Amino acid sequence: MIKRILPSIFMGLSLILLSANSNAQLNYTVTFPTATYAALTGTVAHPTLITAYPSGQGVTNTDEGAANAVALPFPFKVNGVTYSTCNISTNGFVSFGTALFDTLDGYYANSLASGPVTFINGSSVPLANSRPIIAPFWDDLDIQLATNLTTQTTGTVGSRIFTIEWKSAKWNYNATAGVLSFQVKLYEADYSILFHYKTNGTGNTGTAVSGSASVGLSDVNTGSGNFLSMSGLTNTATNSSSTETTTISVKPATSFAIKFTPIPTPAIDAAITLIAAPVTVTCKSTPQSLTYTLKNAGTNVIAPGAATINLTLSGANTGTVNGSNTKSLAFGQFDTITISGVNLNNAGTTTLTGVVSLIGDTRATNDSSIYSYITSTVDNSFPYYEPAVIPTTLLKWRLRLAGGTQLWIPYSSSTGIAFQGETLVPYASTGGDTSMFVFLGAGSGANSVGYKSLIYTDCLQLPAGQPAANYSLSFYMTSDSVSAGNDSMYVTVSTDKGVTWNRIPNAGYQRFDGNVIDHTWNLYTVDMSAYAGQTIQIGFEGVSDLGQLFGLDEINLTANYPLPVTLNTFTGTREGTRNVLKWETVNETNNKGFELQRSINGKDFGKIGYIDSKSTNGSSSSKLDYIYTDENPFAATTNYYRLRQLDKNGKEAFSNVVALKSAQVSKAEISSIYPNPVQDKLNIVLNTPSTEKVNIVITDLVGKTISTKVIETIQGDNNIQFNTT
């Protein structure tokens, strides 16, 4: 049988709610009556079960089954709304909304706050139309036999009881034997609901395997205030409408019972729920809007304009705005109220408290909704440097975790993180840092192909009018050959304050590399010149393909900031089989040293050495000379070199690129011209067999001379630069 592990998901970021709560709208009292459990006998029915799971997976209808459109013997009200049919899941809940589909995967995922859900292309999609929910024991169950789902109606008209029973359910689906039987009883007389349990005797001798259940009720809407969750299955358990317990792992005593009795509906009562708010965390510069649903929870009609939602802002932003219903509302009806003109421009945390006002409404428990919003800073000084030091929120480059349960984790340890026999150690090239970001798709409870997770920055305001080469994002990412797969990472950008995210072209990187043995750190650079003059947010999107973990470290964004080191020259020569790199500085401020990097393609560079600054305490105003010898350059190809200059405070800068060709030549020849296209500087690598004087002429397509230069070459590669501006 193919089964699943609950995933961690990166959800779309437009119109999401974080740290929001609304007061209770489920109007029931909870008691624990004493009653002896009695299995259903006599005249009973066995509703027809479909397999509510994608076909071809080896999953049975006793494991992932549903009986849809089961007729109720009498109209039954759930939180004041009348229903005539229900849908019964083998996973221990009853739905009063749309049918439980036979093509969707997810009914085993218990969530009174937002469920049921399904998983489509790596995204968790709420099935809100299936609500409300009555859940006597919602978990990943298997009732073993279709006849173990039974219904029965008893009593006389006006006082009938409709009972649904799940017999000998395995808890979890892969338990070896049945663990418990349980019932839901619906009472015609007062619309009360009873949960009843049996955990001993024939058919209930098994042991739970990773039990993690939810018990309680949900309303049609999702979120805080729209469910009633039990903390456990004892008579000392509490219930909550703001905190759901999804981890009940201890089975109840036999004959334990919970009763939910409706609270009489008041004549005048309005209830609100926040359903849409601006994306957080990001920056704002224009007025925002929040959208609420207003429900008439009383028997009297609410006239147009009679109910007003007053929204008060406190914290980083302050103020009061309001909005009212525009249509007449009978009992149980809803209106959507959008409150505009909300100022969230100031950076920091703002608490938005919405309270509905209706004359004569004496029940305050469902009158308010509180939402906490974080407005990010807009940073415009560079470079932005992030060595993944923890906690991330204390850094200028503030990477934030987005989504519910992350596949990205901040990790700090000099010994690294171990996973499936492999150990990943932080890059730690600066200041002895021992932290990194780790993407753990296969080991985080999200073992499904295509699940995504994102970390992203606050708003970054890139300056305009600088040479394109000055806008660059660099970072280190690991590769390995441990397990083939398409686990990968994409650099993404948002230009609309976090509403949408788009992958930057040619900025995707795969974890698996069959040419390396263990976790190898690779330096990547992404051109950000397309976003000059814009306010953006940068993200790193990890995509799981059930492989190993990979790391992200040493993230740096440059945008034409003053260099702490004035590099006068950086040149290279070939001496036999060795390449000798030399550079000269004429000014150094707070310089830690230089990392020498090499590339085989001029794009992807890796560290081959490090040289400390020769200056006293990192600062000097005189000329200083450096030299580094690459004893083992790439053979029979061109080697590209550059310097990564490192500040003591973690900032960095990169030099020009020097190219050295390995093969000996018999005549002068140009071995490399870059960049292409040319923007402001043209670099030529001229390979000569001996010292000689060379006249170089640069012309355009029609033969017009643009620039000339006469140089005295040395044997080997000569790096020549032309200013084309």
Outline the structure in words.
A hairpin with a 4-residue loop joins strand 46 and strand 47. The protein starts with 19 loop residues before the first strand and ends with a strand. It is an all-beta fold and 725 residues long. An eight-stranded antiparallel sheet has the order 3-4-5-6-9-15-16-17, with no helix packed on it. Helix content is 0%, strand content 47%. The protein has no helices and 53 strands.
Shape: elongated
User: Largest beta sheet: what is the strand line-up?
Assistant: 3-4-5-6-9-15-16-17
Structural class: mainly beta
Cα separation of the termini: 67 Å
Number of DSSP strands? 53
Oligomer: single chain
Rounded radius of gyration (Å): 33 Å
Share in helix = under 10%
Q: How does the major sheet shape up?
A: 8 strands, antiparallel
Uncertain ranges? 1-24, 390-396, 443-448
Proportion of strand residues: over 45%
- Total of helices: 0
Averaging pLDDT over every residue, what do you get?
82
